[in-house]
Structures are given as C-alpha cells and as structure tokens.
Amino acid sequence: MTGARDRVLDAYETLLIEKGVGAVTLDAVAAAANVSKGGLLYHFASKDALTEGVLQRLRERSKADADAIRSAPEGSVQYYVRTSAPGFASRSLARSYLAALRLADDSPTGRAARAALAEVDADGYAALCDDLGDPVLALLAQLIGDGLYLRTLAGTPLPPGITVEQLLQRMREIADQD
Fold first, then answer.
1. Which residues bind DNA (predicted)?
2. Which of 78, 93, 139, 177 has an alpha carbon within 20 to 30 A of 146's alpha carbon?
3. 136, exposed or middle or buried, with CB in 10 Å at 0-12, 13-18, 19+?
4. Are the CB atoms for 76 and 70 separated by under 8 Å?
C-alpha cells in the first residue's frame, strides 16, 4: 500500500502529464491523491516543494536505474536499449521523466526540471561508460536508447521488420569493428 506522500506525488505526476503545468493546483493534486489539502501541505508546504519532490523522485529512480544498468547480467548496452524500447521501459521512471519534461517547459520550474533531466542523462551515460570504457560508443548506445524511449513515451511502435534485437546486433557489429 502506498503512503499519502507517494499518492500525492503520483497524483501530481498524473496531472502534469495529462493537463500540463498551468492546469495543476494544490487543490487538484489533493483531490486526485484522495487526501485533504492539509494532508498534502503536511508533506509538501508549497507547489515548489511538491515540484522538488517530483524531481527528487526522478533522481532517485534514475540512480536505481543506473545501478541496474551497471549490474545487468546481459551487459549495460543490452539492458539500456532493451529497457528503453516500447513495452519495456520502467513505468515509474517513464512517468517521472514525462512529468519532469512537462515541468521543464514551464518558466518558473523549467531550470530545476532541466537540471534534474540532465542528471538523469548523466547517470545513464556514466553507467554505460563504466561498462564500455568508450565514451563515443556509450553516447551512441544512449542515443539509440533515448530514441527508443521517446517512442515509448509517444506510444510509437518500432517500424515493421525492425526489432530491438536487430538494433543490438548492429551495435555489437559496430563495437567489434574498433
């Protein structure tokens, strides 16, 4: 069972994703989380605090994902690309990321959201670099994964006849040419 704090963060993420920053009020978040406004304010004293809570949650989820990248038995690239593909991306990380993207588009919260998103990017890149030892190859893997992740967020399937396995195989071929 999730606690009130997590329900509030879940509700805020959902409202950001579905309605955008301008339509989200503390009253709307409290109602969506099924808590009183006082209950919301107990956990987050202001909308800025609520925003920081969502961005901190994104950072925590990103750190956990970077740990998973580093410890993946199949290797960092296979894990990163596979878990970025439509149908495989972490729902919780994807939701937090998408909510942060919405915040990044808003001028009052944009700078903090863009900084959090940059940390997420750096986490993934560092994890790939740690395993691959080649910054260019790590960036290529990250860009492929990020493109697949964008498809996940947009609900866009891979083109017919192209599979994640084919992408990974081609990446292995490129890496072996060095």
1. 25-44
2. 177
3. exposed
4. yes
Contact by Cβ (8 Å): 58, 96 = yes
Model confidence band, residue 14 (pLDDT cutoffs 50, 70, 90): very high
- Give the C-alpha separation, 165 to 178, whole Å: 21
Q: What is the DSSP letter of 159?
A: P
Q: Give the span between the Cα atoms of 160 and 42, in whole angstroms.
A: 50
How many whole angstroms from its chain centre is CA 52?
15
Torsion sign, CA atoms 167, 152, 80, 103:
positive
Nearest to 132 by CA among 62, 78, 84, 67: 78
pTM: 0.87
